[in-house]
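Database export, one record per block. Field names are fixed; values are copied verbatim from the stored entry.
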Amino acid sequence: MKQLRLSPKYSNFLEKHLSGETMDYRQVIALFLPILIDQAFIVGLNLVNTAMISSSGVAAVSAVNMVDSINMFLINVFVAIATGGTVVVAQYKGSGNQLMVSKSAAGSVTAVSLTALVIGMFLVVFHTPILSLLFGGADADVLHSARTYLIGSGVSYMGIAIVQAVCGALRGIGKSRASLALSLITNLLYVLLNILFINVLDMGVFGMTLSVNIARYAGAICALYYIFKLDAALHLGIRDLFTLPLSMLRKIMFIGVPFAAEQMFFNGGKLLTQVFIVSLGTYAIATNAIAGSLAAVLQIPAGALSLTIVTVVGQCIGRGNVADARKFIRSFLVLGSITLFLIGILIMPFFYPLVGIFDPPTEIVHDIFIILLINTIVQMFLWPISFIAPSALRAAGDSKFTSITSMLTMWLFRVVLGYLLGITFNFGILGVWLAMNCEWGVRGAIFMWRYRGTKWYQHKLI
């Protein structure tokens, strides 16, 4: 990547806040920009996909939203293990041990793939009782579409797992452009196939199911081809994926298992919250789906920062430079708040044209606006400390504390308070979102207290 040419004033500012002994601001920006583009495409394409499926009716939107809440719960389990691989790869990269970089990358791909295979098979076999247990009160047409999409999602898990594991390993060594290319292949193919199957052939939810499987397995094939034939940094062969030393597995799982447990409990709480929302009716489900999609747009740069900091802090800790890690964490938290503010003032004035692409019923447009406005204001202050901070702590090896904190605050505040505000006190969908905002504040305060101490960087991972 060409070096950035900036005026001395800006160069000095970036040198002060985004440079250290481990890496300078040019390396940080070169790592961040591809991740930012990747996140923008992922969120943007998901937005387009939600808009496309909305042409099949409110029932289709509701079915996809319900199943995606299950997908988020299960996919994040093996994404968490992939994150463990990213941390281990990044720390070995920081320490300069290239042989262990390769071994940890191979171990991550194998562990994540096997986990996804087991989870996907479980979902396919038990799809009927899962839907009955969680969403039995939904309308019959919603459940019929949800069943189709749930089976197809389970089949696709192996594909997305391979892509996630390879991309995570590439981010760990700082090759975020290669990670971006693989992600773009998968997601662009997904949206193009959706256009064909949903808009042209009018195949509805079944068309989306075909699209996600073809796109994810095509992405997986490209990811494996890249690391075997094109990559010159990881030096992996097919044989490496079939050897998984227990010592390496323990390192990956030291980060991955607590994070996976956190994701299960965290997204289990979100899934339970989704059950609350189902009880509020189909319009409430659609309101939550559309508001969530628009909120994700506002969080794109901050989300990219939360991914970038894993590599940055991981390499700092691998080098043994805690001062660098602290400096980068402070800078990333401030950057997170700034980006959320800027994106908020850019996007909110265009709310009505944006929400119009979903073609929502007129009755729910005002509710979506109020939810998004409150969320936009609150997240500027609370989202970075609630999401960027734990990514940094986890990159230092402090996975158990961050996971326990996230699980407890999720269930004590977002679930319990969400039920009280949304159902007991009749605030409806707004009450559920307000409870989520409260949970961000409590969780973020605990993480900042942890950051100010010393225990978070005292774990011996490599």
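Remark 1: The chain has 16 helices and no strands.
Remark 2: The chain has a mean pLDDT of 84.
End of record.
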